[in-house]
Amino acid sequence: MNLNESTELKQDRTDSAPPAVTMKALPAYEQIKRYVVKRIAEGVWKPGGLIPSETELVKEFGVARMTVSRALRELTTERVLTRVQGSGTFVAPQRYESTVLEIRSIADEIAARGHRHTARLLTLEPSDDPLSLEALGLESGPAFHSCIVHAEEGEPIQYEDRFVNPKVFPAYLEQDFTVETPNHYMVRVAPIQRAEFRIYAQKPDANVRRHLMMDIGEPCLMLWRRTWVGDDVATSVRLWHPASRFHLAGHV
């Protein structure tokens, strides 16, 4: 079975072959990603289980190794897979997803509770981080990167680590995000058309823990979200929240 940027993924083989779907408009790496996710969703590949190697997937799909490698790297970034040097690629442990139906600025949420929002800007810079460039669909950098700590009545409740597509928001680095949140700015300039997200319970690294004034060992709720404006990925963001001070909810 061969894939390229303009071929369809078809099924006419045994149960071990890729599923029967038509994805003619999708790049080959995206087709492979969807195949992997489908195998996991069907229970063929179990949490913690080893998936086929890059070499096996290259042979199965008839594509270049870099195409398979990109698909697996992106799924690792999205926490669908986990890669262990020298051992292979495994299905990540099962995590339960919740639906947040509304994308709101943290400042609006705090104001709705009648409290005062403040923001402390830690980073606002161009970045060539390779995983973030991939998440934004950029072949080359730089992307724009910001890190902000949001506080409610002086108590930090969110660490925002955001990468932004400069094609969509070329003036991003010129903004004062202590006055206006990135969410407010982006909605004002180019409202999003769609989004994907996942929520995890994770232990933060020392940097996030320090800025959120958390105890060692205290877990975080981390929301990973990617949004689109038209056909372009606009932003990829990780939002860290101390579990003892924050909860995530949605409504219809």
Sheet of most strands? 6 strands, antiparallel
> What is the share of helical residues?
10-25%
Kindly provide the name of the CATH class of the largest domain. Alpha Beta
How do the helices and strands follow one another from N- to C-terminus? HHHEEHEHEEHEHEE
CATH architecture of the largest domain: 3-Layer(aba) Sandwich
Key words describing this protein structure:
alpha+beta, Arc Repressor Mutant, subunit A, 2 domains, six-stranded antiparallel β-sheet, globular, His_ut_repres, DNA-binding
Characterize the structure shown.
The chain folds into two domains: 1-94, Orthogonal Bundle (Arc Repressor Mutant, subunit A), CATH 1.10.10.10; 106-242, 3-Layer(aba) Sandwich (Chorismate lyase), CATH 3.40.1410. The protein is globular. It has seven helices and eight strands; from the N terminus they run H-H-H-E-E-H-E-H-E-E-H-E-H-E-E. Strand 1 (81-84) and strand 2 form a beta hairpin. It is of the alpha+beta class. The longest helix has 14 residues, at 28-41.
